[in-house]
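## Example pair
The file below holds two records. Each record gives the amino-acid sequence first, followed by its structure token line.
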Amino acid sequence: MIGQTISRQSKQTIANLVQKRFSHDLIVSPKTGRTIIRTGGGGRSSSNGHVITVFGCTGFLGRYLVNRLAREGAHVIVPYRDEDDMRHLKVMGDLGKIVPMEIHLRNKDSLEAAIRHSDTVYNLLGRDYETRNFSFSDVHVEAAGVIAELAQKHEVDRLIQMSALNATVDSPSRFLSTKAEGEQLVRSIFPSATVVRPSAMYGQEDRFLARLAMSRGLSVRINGGSTKVRPVNVSDVATAMHLMLDGKNTIGETFELVGDKEYTYKELLDYIKETTNLDIGDLNVPKPVASLVAKAMNLLPWQTLGADEVERMMIDDKLTGAKTFADLDVQPSSLEITGIQYLRRFRTNLYNDEPLPKGTLNKKKVFHTSYL
């Protein structure tokens, strides 16, 4: 009798473990007819059936995207050049779900090994400045073309190519012109590729808000601070690119991802002043002088402001009519609301935990000195 009871309980336990599958658990690739089947109840310990390669995963945007992909149970291949740069990615997925693979951009076999078993490839590779080893063209054009060629060869379902807002072939900025050339090359090889053009991204480890806060105005008051920009939260861009994974309305499309509001550099500096109480100077640096200083700074052994970045700071952000966040049902974050969490570290210890100020800078100075 006891044995029968245990047997019935065991059968019931097994029955409860049997997974039910529904039509929405099955995805059929429109390009190759490959079936992708989800298993599990969702989350990092389940599987969404995807094997995804994320080139540029060790960069600013890459870590946010890998986190979103891995927490749904995708197998994510993370190509890297320096092992130390990818260690933080290992814990983003369940055991065995994050697969590191060493690559070199000029070693086609290593790139092919990273793509061979994937159904989706994200190419986030990019350089803000040129080095002796890699030029803008090497990374944005040649490497992008090789990745697109290998993706086509191995019948990858989706290729999502990272570009940049304002990318045009005739741009005075080599960064933007090579990004445009890369777009054209990728589309000629892989016509169904999705192209993403984000504006300047900000976040915890950015080189945008942090640079403005640390520069004291010397490197940003170029063009009189009148250049118009629409900075976007890196988390919003990662969310949008994650949605492109299974979004049929994104195949072969171009997306321009910008923030909810347009600012001039002067307005951004004023906002940073009010948020951090930093005494950012109002010195305007002429473009020729700024370019000369940037070239001299590039001789230092660490990365600094590049001459091409000075050129980009003269170009207003402009939309061309491509798809936006709205086509993905994503509402971009407000810099004025979320910016404090990225700028708080620049405050002094006397009022580090204070909320966003409502008054002027002068009023805050009175409040600040009341602690002395």
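Second record, same layout:
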Amino acid sequence: MISLGFVTLDEQQDRGYCTEVAKRAGRYGISVCRFSPLNIDPQTEHVHGFVFQEETNEWADAVFPIPPFLYDRCFYGHDDRSKKAKPIMRWLKQRPDLVFLGYGLPNKWEVYESLSAHPLLSAYVPPTVRLERADDMLELLRREQAVIAKPVHGSAGRGIYVIQKKGKTLSVQDGSGKERAVITRRRELDQLVTSLNRRDGYALQPLLSLSTPANEPFDLRVLLQKDETGRWIEQVRAVRIGHAGTWVANVRAGADIRPFADWLDCLPSPKRIVVLDSIETIIRTLPTYIDSEFGPLFEIGLDLGVADNGAVWILDVNSKPGRKVVNILSAEQQNGIYEAPLRYCLFLAGGGNSR
């Protein structure tokens, strides 16, 4: 029987998702376990984790060898656990005897640079600069009324700041719309940039007009996964709508998830045609290009913004997408998503391209 291991930093993270996948694993001849990279014994290379018991549909404590197939669902912060786990994960991904369902993406800045170099996709990437000095922000603000600063290692909308011109001052708000600072002097802007870069590298983009008539931030989330032949397929397309007055439409930040078709029906016909054409172009082009640039992935959470004029923008490409958007799907469609990692694992076990 093939062994597939879910790797997470927190023992409880993704437990529901892991369980749904594990319930279906037996019919594919796969056993499922989950563990933290911090629980690998460096002497024996055995793991203390949990193994799914098909008879009881429960997880049991166990010690086992590192599984030959691994599903990386680790999310890193700036804490000690993350700092310890990263080099362990790098070591696992370099081992020739282990196969990961996906090898992940580099930081957002490298992804932006790569997409900007593509002859087709570059048209959908907002102008993006690396925030290294206050002058980088001032130069963009000379052309724009407001800019958004995104951490290059961020996720779930955390660490985002919006800087707006207000008369002769700059207002700095966090992703929830709360004002964090009012900058009146160059020295204060220097301090802000230094403070941001001390925590993480940042990229700057113009603040795009991506809100509903009710001033709610919104974006489109497209979940793409590979099927049992290694071909990219679209699993779900949804709209995420955040709270009025905030800047992020992330589900973890409290955004609602709504069917894409309902949102699309509200667009005037000419705009609908333009938007759909852009989305299809991106979905058709981006996954295979990302694979060729950064190595094979199993899934992508693609975040798209749609401006008032119908322009579609690539906001983020996530190699470890969340699962809450699947709640809008039927039970049969959800079942396909839970079975996807198992089918792709069998593809890799049969000698499919994994690196």
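Notes on the second record: The chain has a mean pLDDT of 90. The two ends are 23 Å apart (CA to CA).
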